[in-house]
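RECORD TYPE: protein structure
NAME: Phosphate transport system substrate-binding protein
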Amino acid sequence: MKLQLQRKSGLRALAVGAVAVSGALMLTACGSDDNTNAGGDSSKAPTSSSSIKCADKGGQLLASGSSAQQNAMDAWVKNYQQACSGAQINYKASSSGEGIIDFNNGTDGFAGSDSPLKPEEVEASKKICATGTGISIPMVGGPIAIGYNVSGVDDLVLDAPTLAKIFDSKITTWDDAAIKKLNPDAKLPSSKIQTFHRQDESGTTDNLTKYFNGAAKDAWPYEHAKPWMGKGGQSAAKSAGVAAQVKQVNGSIGYFELSYA
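PREDICTED:
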């Protein structure tokens, strides 16, 4: 599935394989696997700030992690702090990998990640969790957009194998035969493709490469991972950094959480 979107930012974005290229944005915190219902109906989700249950005392809570979660996190923090006088939550958007490291070092109360904790990360969390271990709590879906900036090209179709080859520097010009075949009516330039990827260990990278593993295994010879494994391209920090580079550089393409498109 391919969908061309035009955003106010001027970026053109393809939400490619919308179901496959979507991760559950998670929070990592100390807890246990005891799911006994202590009362109340868990099927009823809070619908307004009046439904927010505040802690007995205010205070400061530090957290960090996925930059893909930043826009959602800002909204959650704003609503909680408005409802709970004296509460201060500071979420530093870094990367999924950095957030989990900070959590397991005891620096932060929770971490945001686009991928669940690995077994070794769960084991490491036992050192800082007074009871139980680090657990991953799915919070919201996080679609990944493929953003591109090519002058004169308003509509572009790219399938998984073609995308994988672009991000692995196997397709290097916009008028490559594979891109032409998918876009017979587009006026594609002969200019070089400039790809941008995340420089940090990113859950967004992990989820995109999971998609490549599943939909374009022959074109993407690497295992999915938070560090970028493809050849070539330039790196940028966080989803915001990749989106900013694509917006500025003609002939470029990159990936980021959909809200940055």
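COMMENT: The chain has two domains: 4-22+143-260, 58-140.
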